[in-house]
Amino acid sequence: MEKTGSRGGRLPEWLRLRPGVKKSYGATRRVLRDLNLHTVCESAKCPNHGECWGKGTATFMICGDRCTRACRFCAVESGEPLPLDPTEPRRVAMAAERMRLRHVVITSVTRDDLEDGAAGHFKATLEALRELLPCGVLEVLTPDFDGREKDIMTVLSGGPNIFNHNLETVRRLTPEVRSKSDYDRSLGVLRTAKVLSGGGVYTKSGLMLGLGETEAEVLEAMSELRGVGCDVLTLGQYLRPAKENMAVEEYIEPAWFDYYGEAARGMGFVHVASGPLVRSSYNAAEFDIQRGD
Predict the structure, then answer these.
(1) Nearest Cα to 285, choosing from 90, 89, 56?
(2) Could you tell me the CATH superfamily of domain 18-286?
(3) Whole-model pTM?
(4) Helix H or strand E encompassing 185
(5) Which residues of 75-107 are buried (b: 16+ CB within 10 A; e: fewer)?
(6) Tens digits of per-residue pLDDT, 40-67?
(7) For 164, left (φ over 0), alpha (ψ -120 to 50), or beta?
(8) How far apart are the C-alpha atoms of 214 and 101, rounded to whole Å?
(9) Closest to 64 in 3D by CA, of 31, 48, 93, 88
């Protein structure tokens, strides 16, 4: 395909958000405030924040709101984190129950300050959710735990249905985009989760486009994700959350997202969400784990 995306600068028409239905926005906000919970929707300045809350859903962010890493693309605050709150898992479960969620997504800041990277806190949250939502689909979006198998196993022992860890960008750009992370380590996390679960857990990953990657690099990253058994893929446009973050190199046209989505399906991904405003947990419940599509 011929490159037709626009260079970074003014937002193109296809990225201009229009006001959506806010029917459940206030109710969602009240639940989260009442239970004193963080969401990646707010902390990462997600462009779909209003739409998702308006539908009565949100992505819970556990382990505090301060990350021990400072990836250049991310709006989450970095710095010295506070101690883990042992009441948080139960509060997350209570929120999911009040919101009547059938598909719950749990992510976290990276906690390199903790010996287990907060893997045990993930497990406790999953167990609390399973107690109140025995039939719910539970999805985790985890940090890399420095690739430690024992910590990945701890998370898996909590019983998630979907294990997500984002590759974020192509190999060449990883040192610039996420300097404290490693491309092959991230691939290894997904491989380990698939192997340790005996293939019983769906694995998932996501890529941001518009950081200067080439078509060949995107296709290579998708192929390498399939090579480690990744089942589900999300592709979305990188949007600069603040002036302190790295700039957008290019706004990718929707036709390119369609092209990459079809290419991914051809590689064997069982579910693909590809579009400018797609994010890791955006409309996550559209993936039917019963049917596997």
Answers:
(1) 56
(2) Aldolase class I (3.20.20.70)
(3) 0.91
(4) helix 183-196
(5) bbeeeebeebeeebbbbbbbbbbbbebebbbbb
(6) 666 445 555 556 655 556 789 999 888 9
(7) beta
(8) 38
(9) 88
